[in-house]
């Protein structure tokens, strides 16, 4: 089962990621200044997974990725993949396990390891 993980970027903005059952990040959201906006978009995407579309792209270096689009708005961008088949597997993971995913909030956790 996949998971939506809310965390903080080094810049101080918030983001959410969809993490696969194996612990790999499938996609990362846009940056949010407020945590509640990030949470709201994660919940909205979770409720709209059946209606969202996945637009595939190829970089100039031959890597593949996709964007998650809901209501003509790009919500998230996937990690880079080496083949188009791997992109499709990432999308299939979202379609299959996304509706069962839970949202975990790690944005308030401080530095875990002592100095």
TrEMBL record:
<dbReference type="InterPro" id="IPR036913">
    <property type="entry name" value="YegP-like_sf"/>
</dbReference>
<feature type="domain" description="DUF1508">
    <location>
        <begin position="60"/>
        <end position="105"/>
    </location>
</feature>
<protein>
    <submittedName>
        <fullName>DUF1508 domain-containing protein</fullName>
    </submittedName>
</protein>
<dbReference type="Pfam" id="PF07411">
    <property type="entry name" value="DUF1508"/>
</dbReference>
<dbReference type="InterPro" id="IPR010879">
    <property type="entry name" value="DUF1508"/>
</dbReference>
